[in-house]
Amino acid sequence: MGNPMKIRASVKEGVTEVKVLMQHEMETGLRKDAEGKLVPAWHITEVKAQYNGRTVLEGQLGTAVSKNPYLVFRFKGGKPGEKVSVNWVDNKGDTRTDEAEIS
Amino acid sequence: MNTIIIKNTILLFAFGAFSIAAMADDKSGPAKAAEDIAKYREMISDGNPAEFDEMRGEELWKKPGGPNNVSLEKCDLGKGAGVVKGVYAELPRYFPDTQRVQDLESRLLTCMTTLQGIPEKDITAKPFGSDNYQPAIESLVAYVVGQSKGIQMNVSLKHPKEKEAYEIGKRVFVYRAGPYDFACSTCHSQDDLRIRMQDLPNFNNKKSAQSAYVSWPAYRVSQGLFRSFQWRINDCLRQQRFPEPKYASDVTIALTMFMAKSANGAAYAGPGLKR
Predict the structure, then answer these.
(1) CATH of span A6-101
(2) Can you give the residue ranges of every domain in chain A?
(3) Of all helices (H) and strands (E), which one includes residue A86?
(4) What global pTM score does this model have?
């Protein structure tokens, strides 16, 4: 299981803005270590955000995304006190889900 | 005939001055770059990964560790044993128990060796982070500095040793040496100097010194790591081609003292976020 994410969500004029900071190495698989050996690829492949059981964002991340990715997105709807959950899966099959209350 | 020539010359000058003014307004050079970097910083300021280091540091602070199996909650960072809130805004300072002026890292080192019983060389052998390696002391720094966010910098020079450290730091700052005959002041004593895209702070300018000091320690996006102030000094000296300084040595503390004092009056804003 991966390290926890930081999620902040706030609603303004009927639009919820979600800010997600993920903890992940995001190794490209192209970098070499001090001994000259390739560091194997290790990165998030899929991100999914849900609100009330509805998927509001689904996407694929890859090697071009930096370490500790930061993602901001907005969706229509959302009320204070309701929850948004974010899940990622990486190429080693590891996964992590965290949720946050909308403020 | 002569008047016409004069008139034309005046017109030409006027036009020249106008086009220079117009050029100054057109942001395409360094000004634009600085603006874009500021915009980028603002965009990611809510998502500073240094927060993860702060979380880790808090855990390390509270968890019993070392051969003595005690936590650092009895560590005195200047405001009494266990007080973390606001301490960074008053460091470096003189500590009567060690009879030295100490910065945050050096003080943490004192606590980790005396309270927890960790041999000093175990900590100072590899004090900075690298790929997949983040030493405890760096995360502890992140936690402690985060607890001074928004607090006004107030470094004192009341004690003679503090005054002495400041004076030494001030001299080291302008001391030219090494194969490039560089001093800190070579890059940090004029306005509007840059290394590639990075604006360099000018420590002769109060505002510039303040904004630079309060934004360190920081998370470096390009390195994917949180960096302490000891690292900042170590890497500056490396770029100057100076010999590598001893971790938390008196000279690094003196330099920190000089810079910290220059930042007095500004609200501490770290941990920062750097490109």
Answers:
(1) 2.60.40.10
(2) 6-101
(3) strand A83-90
(4) 0.82
